[in-house]
Amino acid sequence: MMDNIKLTKDIYYIGKVDDRDVPFHRLILTKGTTYNSYFLDTEKPTVIDTVDMIYGREFVENLSKLTNLEKIKYIVVNHTEPDHSGAMAGLCIKAKNATIVCSEIAVNELKELYKLHNREFLVVKDGDTLDIGGKTLLFKMTPYLHTAETMITYCVEDKILFPCDIFSTHVATFDLFDNLAKEDITDDFIGYYNAIIAPHRNYVKILMEAIKDLDIKMIAPSHGYILTQDIDKYINIYKDMSVIDLNGKKASIVYSTMRNSTKSIANLIKTELENANMEVSLFNANKDDINEILKAIESSDVVLFGSSTRYGDMIGSIENVLKELKEKDLEGKIAGAFGSYGWSGESIEIIQEYLNDTNMNVLNTSNIIKNTGMTEVEFPIRVKFSLNEDSSKEVIKAVEYIKTVIK
Ligand code: FEO
After folding, report:
1. Interval between CA 169 and ligand 1 midpoint (Å)
2. Integer Cα distance of 11 and 40 in angstroms
3. How far apart are the C-alpha atoms of 342 and 340, rounded to whole Å?
4. Residue 54, Cβ neighbours under 10 Å: how many?
5. Contact (Cβ atoms closer than 8 angstroms) between residue 353 and residue 321
6. What residue stretches are annotated with the Flavodoxin-like domain (predicted)?
7. pLDDT tens across 133-182, in order?
């Protein structure tokens, strides 16, 4: 911790600058990073986020020089990934009277990560406020930016947003405020967005809705620069880079349906892709001409195949189309399988096998987790029986993901 860096007269920076080549999300952060944590020295002293676990001991020792840890009333955890919650185990031992403030999903994660099963938690929901004695904290849920439990905290009186990973930069700077930066930080800001936020950019609209009525004078994120100037510029970068307009892109959806359930999924996918201005061709493999289907596939950016399952297999003529794919050069296209089923849904897996035999980029849950850390999107798309409200949401979530990976 650097000596008494203050954001206001009673809000302290208590983070850590990490100027190594930092391994992170299968990247090497060659400019390093910082783990920004904040101490609000109010009547009910409050810590917002902590630092990476390897600096946990140092963090707690440094904070103990600034305040009596037993007087800390709240520890706000905006995001549970260990680069921000990593000091929780050590801090909670010393700050024995502190209540942990976090989203509902975060509770169990923190309990399991840091053995905090016996701690007091305060679960906050979107729009909740907390009086910390002289200041008011407002909490907004920002799910999947970039994990399910993420939320942001706004200090009403000081008009400071503490958004954790959001609006961050990966730069190991000791000049923590943007106005002290020796060069323009926009490229670092955009680079961070591309590395961490872009795969989740369809959730940025929730963030924009959450902050649209806030008067933000300062953004104090948990990596890199604290933003004090051109706040709207940085917010607009997120807003603009998250718009998904697929005008000029094409998709082909080919299905074979038994009782119209798989057809309903195909139609829902079509509608969702068209909402992003994509041109979508929909084919019933049992009725439409195979040459027309293959021609459309070859000119598409996204190709999706769906079949109902009957007696453990696909139905109708869709296999005739799938057999043709292996011989074609379909490199660069995104492919996926879907279908409704009643018991095991073998047809969906068989389609997936056919797709894996091509040179297309086939969507599957394992790769999505590896590449983005997202666990909420599942491919292939499997719908038990007919679409209902819940399964429709899952399909829409999957299509939203497709939109983010179309180049
Ligand atoms: Fe900076 Fe998602 O951790």
Report:
1. 11
2. 5
3. 7
4. 15
5. no
6. 251-406
7. 999 999 999 999 999 999 999 999 999 999 999 999 999 999 999 999 99
- DSSP alpha helix (H) spans, 32-94: 56-66, 82-85, 88-94
Report field, pTM of the whole predicted structure over 0.85: yes
Nearest ligand 1 atom, CA 223: 1
The closest-lying atom of ligand 1 relative to the alpha carbon of residue 222 is: 1
Q: Is 51 helix (H, G, I), strand (E, B) or coil?
A: coil
Q: Which is the closest atom of ligand 1 to the Cα of 164?
A: 1
3-state secondary structure 171-185: CCCCCCEHHHCCCCC
> Radius of gyration over alpha carbons of the chain, in Å?
24
Ligand 1 centroid to Cα of residue 197, in Å, is: 10
pLDDT over threshold 60, residue 85: yes
- With a Cβ cut-off of 6 Å, ligand 1 is lined by 79, 81, 83-84, 146, 165, 222-223
Q: How far apart are CA 404 and CA 386, in angstroms?
A: 26
